[in-house]
């Protein structure tokens, strides 16, 4: 499989060190990429595949969410694929950007009674799948995407984040 070139940027918020985030991202996203290639027959470019992970705060992600999605509120993760892609098709050498907000992740982890790192791991996987064209705009898409998330998280030793919940969809 092509190597993932993960660029980390801490813009705002009280995040762990860049080194800790880099190590976590490499472990999580390499596992997700390996899973997609092996189980979903996802093709990958033969050269390094690049993506960026931006760690920020609620204020910054709220501004981005308002500008790009017309939703004037903070959210946990936003993904911006570099190019339109259909699940299972070859991505370009640049996958895109994943942006994650500290306060929202922390609050949700507390509400879910999960360790912060486990919830952050889930959101990294969620954002990564969006870069490959997966979505959750309707129940069929949500079932596929959440199934993939659950199986990837199981590979990482984490429990099903959707267990006992209806499919979550936010347009």
Automatic annotation (TrEMBL):
The residues that the entry says bind Zn(2+) are 126, 130, 136
Q: What is its EC number?
A: 3.1.-.-
Q: Which family does it belong to?
A: Belongs to the endoribonuclease YbeY family.
Major localization class: cytoplasm
| Subcellular localization, as worded in the UniProt entry | Cytoplasm
**Role this protein plays:** Single strand-specific metallo-endoribonuclease involved in late-stage 70S ribosome quality control and in maturation of the 3' terminus of the 16S rRNA.
Q: Which HAMAP family match?
A: Endoribonucl_YbeY
**EC category:** hydrolase
TM annotation in the entry: none
Name the keywords, alphabetized.
Answer: Cytoplasm, Endonuclease, Hydrolase, Metal-binding, Nuclease, Ribosome biogenesis, rRNA processing, Zinc
Any idea what this protein is called?
Endoribonuclease YbeY
**Gene (name only):** ybeY
Q: Which cofactor does it need?
A: Zn(2+)
Give the co-factor note.
Answer: Binds 1 zinc ion.
């Amino acid at each position: 499989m092509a190597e993932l070139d993960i660029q980390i940027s801490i813009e705002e918020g009280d995040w762990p060190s860049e080194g800790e985030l880099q190590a976590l991202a490499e472990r999580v996203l390499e596992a997700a990429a390996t899973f997609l290639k092996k189980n979903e027959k996802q093709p990958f470019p033969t050269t390094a595949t690049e993506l960026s992970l931006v760690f920020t705060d609620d204020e910054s992600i709220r501004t981005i969410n308002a500008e790009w999605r017309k939703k004037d509120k903070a959210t946990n993760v936003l993904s911006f694929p570099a190019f339109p892609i259909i699940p299972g098709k070859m991505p370009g050498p640049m996958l895109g950007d994943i942006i994650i907000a500290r306060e929202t992740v922390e609050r949700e982890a507390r509400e879910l009674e999960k360790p912060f790192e486990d919830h952050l791991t889930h959101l990294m996987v969620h954002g990564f799948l969006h870069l490959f064209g997966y979505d959750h705009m309707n129940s069929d898409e949500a079932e596929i995407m959440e199934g993939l998330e659950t199986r990837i998280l199981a590979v990482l030793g984490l429990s099903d984040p959707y267990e006992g919940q209806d499919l979550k969809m936010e347009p």
